[in-house]
Design brief:
Length: 416
């Protein structure tokens, strides 16, 4: 493939050109109405996003990190406590926990989905914690901290296995706060309820990010908290607005974490297109998986359990020589991503937690083997087949189908 025929990792230009007039109309409405913070545009988006997620409330905030931090604070997570989560995630998950004053405790993953493994969670709670039955309080033995919450991360657009996580949370009296920052519209089937549940409607609260590269992305920063609990929703609204119950009346110290109306208007316009965009991602994922099948076991495509309907925020494969493949694809003009090359428990920022290499073997192996291939709604079949052909060429294997020539694209770097 000619390197000038680049396949970008994500294209942030095409969808905005596609809806440029809608976005300009939003901009004009904001400028003419001068309601820059809060107001009808924010309220309309909150209502529509809550309905989309199947939640009673959505509270718009200025980032996914704030969304998760506010959700944890509202849920009562306090300094000196501990919160269970995974280490194969963006640092915002850990930051949100640490910035409440709590300590993140990392549990290893299911190596097929990269999400929190419920069996390892059970083992951690039984082996490393003790449940005070009288006080209904779980204590982490090594740190003597009360464990008060679980943050399952719906990674790469696929929900964690929530039924057993919720059952363990009930058994150990823990609050479940979903990190749904990569899972806008993802669903998981609840056998115990006999129905499908959307990310954002499963835990006591959930956090979303609207960073531009997300399935639902703003033209800047943004986030939201979803919940069915009226009191928690009220507390999050106050947390984002300096702890105000009404103007100049502050019940507690809060934050300046509001979403501006311009971003809310952009998000409302994009939310109407999100179902179609997610369907396109699913089609692209199915095409990738079909073309990659002959390359197994050298390339392992994403695993999708029967109980899962992912939205493929990322399409992540496992390969033994990840760095070699990434270099070969770059030479062919195909952009890829690494999510995430250094797990949180081995980051310098968390050196004080005392983790060492080997503590989370599944997470550490995944970090060395995973590669994110180009994925966005406007991705073409030609770009997919060209990407797979380049992978096959690097492996010295024939591609299943001859690739079409990919049209030149502008490579767009995005943090996801």
């Amino acid at each position: 493939m000619n390197p000038t025929h680049a396949v970008p990792f994500v294209d942030l230009i095409a969808p905005h050109l596609e809806m440029e007039e809608e976005l300009l109309a939003v901009t004009r409405a904001v400028l003419r109405g001068a309601s820059f913070i809060g107001g009808p545009l924010v309220e309309d988006f909150e209502r529509d996003f809550a309905a989309y997620c199947g939640a009673s409330h959505a509270i718009a905030v200025n980032s996914g990190t704030d969304a998760l931090r506010f959700a944890l604070i509202a849920a009562g997570v306090a300094p000196g406590e501990a919160v269970l989560t995974v280490a194969n995630t963006f640092i915002a998950t850990g930051e949100a926990i640490s910035q409440t004053g709590a300590r993140p405790l990392f549990v290893d993953i299911d190596p097929r989905t990269f999400n929190l493994d419920p069996e390892l969670l059970r083992d951690f709670l039984q082996r490393e914690c003790v449940l005070d039955q009288r006080l209904r309080r779980t204590i982490h033995r090594r740190t003597n901290r009360p464990v008060t919450a679980i943050v399952p991360v719906h990674l790469f657009g696929q929900c964690a296995d929530m039924d057993p996580i919720l059952e363990l949370a009930e058994e150990y009296n823990l609050t479940v706060v979903e990190d749904a920052c990569q899972a806008h519209g993802a669903e998981v089937h609840s056998a115990r309820e006999g129905r499908w549940r959307k990310a954002g409607s499963i835990g006591r609260l959930a956090a979303f990010s609207f960073y531009p590269g997300k399935n639902l992305g703003a033209c800047g920063e943004g986030g939201a908290v979803t919940t069915d609990d009226d009191d928690l929703a009220r507390r999050v609204r106050m947390l984002r607005d300096h702890g105000q119950s009404k103007k100049y009346y502050h019940d507690f110290e809060g934050y300046n974490g509001r979403l501006d109306s311009l971003q809310a208007g952009f998000l409302s316009a994009k939310l109407r297109r999100l179902p179609a965009w997610n369907d396109a991602r699913r089609r692209h994922a199915a095409r990738y998986t079909e073309l990659l099948r002959p390359l197994a076991p050298a390339v392992i495509p994403p695993h999708v359990p029967a109980s899962s309907r992912p939205v493929f925020h990322l399409y992540v494969v496992q390969v033994p020589d990840r760095d070699g493949l990434q270099s070969a694809l770059a030479a062919a003009g195909i952009a890829t991503g690494l999510h995430y090359p250094v797990p949180l428990h081995l980051q310098r920022a968390y050196a004080g937690l005392g983790y060492r290499p080997g503590d989370l073997p599944r997470t550490e192996q995944a970090a060395q083997r995973i590669l994110s291939l180009p994925m966005f709604p406007q991705l073409t079949d030609g770009q997919i087949t060209a990407t797979v052909a380049a992978i096959a060429a690097h492996l010295g294997a024939p591609a299943k189908h001859a690739p079409e020539t990919a049209a030149p694209e502008r490579a767009v770097a995005a943090r996801v």
